[in-house]
Task: inverse folding
């Protein structure tokens, strides 16, 4: 029982209490850059989570063999390998998503969330705990992306599940004039700022 | 000449790396609290970005493309940046201690600055020539510095301001960045490549 608890703790910690975006402000570039549409935000979240899990698995497996002095370059090479895999798989199975995310897919390499979790957690813990921590951090990151993308798409475009016209659901009818600024880069900053304020308020109220 | 000038103008104002493309947000939020650190970080970024773009551009055209190894771009570029930063740090410490004292603490932070990585990748993907790539790197890093320095100026003034409880810290910084980005929206569509 005690044993199981640790894993669940590792898993849930990253989702709300230590959410990488809302609490630690890590990996902000993709958070702001790809959240124009819910689909893009979710895709980016999943891609990052996959790299996170792969990195955590490999780093904690090899943690006793990686020399202390050159651990950061080693981590970066491991992350870059998984990013290349994800990049190629996206290109093969989801070409439209790959096109839309553009340079932000290779940029997962520089996501400080991944390097941070590997350095702080996976390089010192056994494999299973590292993987559950990786899943947790990835899910927390995806949650933040999805929340922000939802706000931006609903107000900035007036749809959900766009930009593909087949799956897009128009929310407010034809007379709705979207708030253009939310679709613009400036709106990403402002929406995230307001979202952070909302999360702060929520956490204070419920004492998390 | 025309292209070079438009690259400079576009990547400083129209397509600003921080405020329009969202590269390098972490240092933008992290080191913009004081003007002094912001200027130091800017100088380090201009230096490393230009060097990194030169090296990766040459490496890409003369090694990777030549031998059909383009799929190794991500791994190679990030390794070049990481080792370049290390090299610059060592060389600077040896030949110019004063400069090292100014830039030293910022150099390790640059490895995870995605703006640097983005510049090297975009220079290759947009098929710039060597000279264009260098000009692109300089313009992008100057644009980054401009945003960083303006933000530091604003934040220094905001320290005295009274801010609502829930907005304190990163929330108000992000909203400020948003307003700054709206100001840069004025350049939108002025020029394109």
Result:
């Amino acid at each position: 029982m005690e044993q199981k608890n640790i894993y669940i703790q590792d898993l849930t910690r990253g989702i709300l209490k230590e959410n990488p975006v809302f609490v630690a402000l890590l990996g902000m570039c993709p958070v702001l850059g790809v959240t124009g549409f819910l689909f893009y935000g979710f895709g980016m979240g999943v891609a990052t989570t996959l790299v996170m899990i792969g990195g955590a698995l490999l780093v904690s497996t090899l943690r006793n063999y990686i020399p202390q002095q050159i651990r950061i370059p080693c981590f970066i090479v491991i992350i870059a390998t998984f990013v290349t895999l994800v990049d190629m798989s996206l290109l093969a199975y989801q070409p439209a998503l790959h096109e839309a995310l553009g340079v932000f897919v290779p940029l997962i390499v520089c996501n400080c969330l991944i390097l941070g979790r590997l350095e702080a957690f996976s390089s010192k813990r056994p494999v299973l705990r590292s993987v559950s921590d990786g899943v947790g951090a990835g899910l927390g990151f995806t949650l933040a992306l999805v929340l922000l993308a939802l706000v931006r798409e609903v107000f900035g475009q007036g749809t959900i599940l766009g930009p593909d016209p087949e799956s897009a659901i128009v929310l407010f009818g034809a007379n709705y004039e979207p708030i253009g600024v939310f679709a613009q880069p400036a709106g990403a900053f402002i929406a995230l700022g307001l979202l952070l304020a909302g999360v702060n308020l929520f956490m204070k109220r419920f004492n998390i | 000449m025309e292209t070079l000038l438009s690259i400079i103008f576009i990547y400083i104002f129209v397509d600003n790396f921080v405020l329009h493309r969202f590269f390098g947000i972490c240092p933008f939020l992290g080191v913009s609290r004081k003007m002094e650190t912001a200027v130091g970080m800017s100088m380090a970024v201009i230096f490393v970005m230009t060097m990194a773009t030169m090296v990766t551009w040459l490496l890409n055209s003369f090694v990777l493309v030549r031998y059909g190894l383009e799929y190794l771009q991500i791994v190679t570029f990030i390794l070049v940046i990481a080792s370049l930063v290390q090299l610059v740090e060592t060389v600077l410490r040896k030949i110019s201690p004063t400069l090292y004292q100014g830039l030293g603490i910022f150099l390790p932070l640059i490895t995870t600055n995605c703006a640097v990585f983005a510049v090297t990748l975009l220079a290759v993907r947009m098929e710039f020539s060597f000279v264009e790539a260098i000009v692109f790197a300089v313009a992008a890093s100057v644009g980054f510095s401009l945003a960083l320095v303006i933000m530091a100026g604003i934040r220094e003034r905001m320290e005295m301001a009274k801010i609502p409880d829930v907005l304190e810290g990163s929330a108000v910084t992000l909203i400020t960045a948003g307003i700054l980005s709206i100001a840069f929206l004025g350049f939108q569509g002025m020029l394109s490549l």
